[in-house]
Every structure is written in structure tokens, then in C-alpha cells.
Amino acid sequence: MNAVRIVVAVAVAGLLSGCTLVTHLGEPQAEEPPETTAAQPEDPTGHTPDPTEAGETEEPIVPPDVPDDAPDRINVQLELGVPHDIIGKEGEVVGTITVTNVDDDTTCPSTHADESKYGKFVIASFELTAEESLVDQSDSWYGRNFDLSTIDVIDPFTGISLSGGLDYDCLPPADRLSTVQPGNTESGALAYDVADELFAIGWFYGHQYFYVPPSVWGGL
């Protein structure tokens, strides 16, 4: 099976703590006065901010276990109901992906569903179209079909998979999103049993990292 990596990220704007170098220049002196730096703000917890430490950002972080031979990735944020092109290795459009809905902390519609093992159920709905040209993709990172079972629920700040994962019993078989073959369009949903309250949804196709941040469906 062609490898399709996912990974669904997100993140929130933060502050960069640091120190500002202040040089005092005055009249000529016998000795040059030493440079001074602004004091670090005190933290009631006793933590000293790292001047190089970045805060939360709008860009999701690519998971750290991405292999070295993977193509350079770009982040593509998806909005509800807005189709986005899926690009092949040579820059051609090989399909479109649309996130149609995200139900956070919901109940499973299947009568065969068990209780959540991790904390809550999340159901994400998609529509995918695969162009006929998808069959021509030959690189291992660019699959010849769209296997959305590799969509993942991730920490929006680190890109690491959350505890839990896909729950196949949560949805009736007719509602589940199936693999999309060249020339076809499929609609359906994927259900996840996860522990964390704050999450993002991520999916890799080739050089594109498609992600749905919690702000898209009111998760923040």
C-alpha cells in the first residue's frame, strides 16, 4: 500500500520572552561603561523565561517522527466547507479535500458502539474527489488513492498523536469514509476515541500537511 502519512496541526499565537540589549552612550569617558541588559521579568512559579523560547504559534508543528527522506512539507489549513486542492509530485492537481463537519465530544450513532475508553468521541466528516491522474503517482509519498483512515487526531502544539485513535465501531459501516480511488468522489466520516480536550486533525499527502485547528469548529 502506498504510504500516506498523516498527521491532521494547529496552534495559537503566543509571546516571545526575551531580553533587550540596551547600550548607554554618553560623553567621552576615561573608561567605556559596560553594556547593560534589561532584567528578565520574574515568574511567580520561579521559572526564568528563555530568551530564545518561542510561544504558541499559528503554524502547527510537524510531528518529530517524519522520516528524513520525506519531501519538504507545507502546512495547509482547512476551513469547514471549503474545498482545497491536493497536489501531486509534479505540481498537478490530483484531487480535492473538504472537511464538512467536526463533532467534538459527541455520541456514537452506531448501536454496536462501546463506551469511550479514553474520554470522548470526535467525529469528523469529509468529502474527497480523486482525479483520474492520481493513478499516475509513482512516488511512495504520493499515493495512487486517498486512504483517509490515516487521518490522525493530534496535539495542536506538538503534532504528536493523542492517546486513543480511530474507533471503527462508533459509526455504522455505511457512514464511514472509504478509500477514494482515481476518478471517484467519496463522502463519509471518521470517528475517534480520544482523551485530550484540545486537539487538531492532520493528514499528510506528499508535501502537503492538511490540518484542521480547533478554532475552525469552536474548539478554542
Automatic annotation (TrEMBL):
Q: Any signal peptide, and if so, which residues?
A: 1-25
Please name the PROSITE patterns in this protein's record. Answer: PROKAR_LIPOPROTEIN
* Assigned keywords, A-Z: Signal
Question: Region annotation Disordered: residue ranges?
Answer: 27-72
Q: Please give the superkingdom of this protein's source.
A: Bacteria
Name the record gives this protein: DUF4352 domain-containing protein
| Biological source species | Pseudoclavibacter endophyticus
Q: What is the lineage of its organism?
A: Bacteria, Bacillati, Actinomycetota, Actinomycetes, Micrococcales
